[in-house]
Design a protein that fits this description.
With about 210 residues, the protein is an alpha+beta fold. The protein contains four helices and ten strands, in the order E-H-E-E-E-E-H-H-H-E-E-E-E-E. The strands form two sheets. A five-stranded antiparallel β-sheet has the order 1-5-4-3-2, covered by helices on one side. Strand 6 and strand 7 form a beta hairpin. The relative contact order is 0.19.
Length: about 210
């Protein structure tokens, strides 16, 4: 499914829409199925560590640098059987049907996603595009925070503990030398066996 938005935001703020949508999809899946989904920053929804949904955000910018429109693409593996997945993704992908053994109404799920997204989006815009209105709940669903992660900024690998998300939607990684790196996009590889113990400091593809 695709959602068309026309927010009065700067292009640099679009990452917040991806995070907001991830939260809406999580809420909707939990509401319809009761399944315990998580968000892998920035745009993947996970079930038992496997990808069940993905989000892609595209935008058009006017000549004066303002956002004209945003299209948020949301792909969810709903009633896909395990045998229907290509062999190369069977170890990393899953579906709502596979996880609970019951078919799910796609119409009911679409309605729930739209309902959740509308509430979050209206609150977000009403607050002037401030991610504070949803970030605390997003962090609760995060499968990335407090884990040792690695990702690339250009040709440079950044490795450390995923410490937090900032209000612009960036992932904050604390490297081993104490530097705090602000990452806006990229593929995150996490190492759950090396999670941080400092839990008291806690406050980007289609499904395939």
């Amino acid at each position: 499914m695709s959602v068309l938005l026309r927010p009065e935001l700067a292009p640099a703020d679009i990452a917040q829409i991806t995070l907001l949508t991830g939260l809406a999809v999580c809420d909707a899946i939990r509401e319809v199925t009761g399944l315990n989904v998580q968000i892998k920053w920035p745009n993947d929804i996970l079930l038992n560590g496997k990808k069940v949904a993905g989000i892609l955000t595209e935008l058009s910018v006017s000549s004066d640098g303002q956002v004209k429109w945003i299209v948020v693409g949301i792909g969810v593996n709903v009633n896909t059987r395990f045998a229907d997945f290509p062999e190369d993704v069977q170890d990393i992908a899953t579906s709502l049907y596979f996880e609970r053994g019951l078919e799910c109404s796609r119409l009911e799920l679409v309605r729930a996603i739209c309902d959740q997204m509308e509430v979050l989006y209206r609150d977000f815009i009403a607050c002037g595009g401030d991610a504070k209105v949803f970030l605390p709940r997003y962090k609760v669903y995060s499968a990335t925070l407090l884990r040792r992660v690695e990702m690339y900024a250009g040709n440079e690998k950044v490795e450390g503990i995923a410490e937090d998300f900032d209000e612009g939607g960036a992932l904050l990684i604390r490297t081993d030398d104490g530097k705090l790196c602000r990452m806006f996009t990229g593929e995150v590889t996490s190492h759950p066996q090396e999670e941080s113990d400092d839990t008291d400091e806690i406050m980007g593809g289609d499904a395939q």
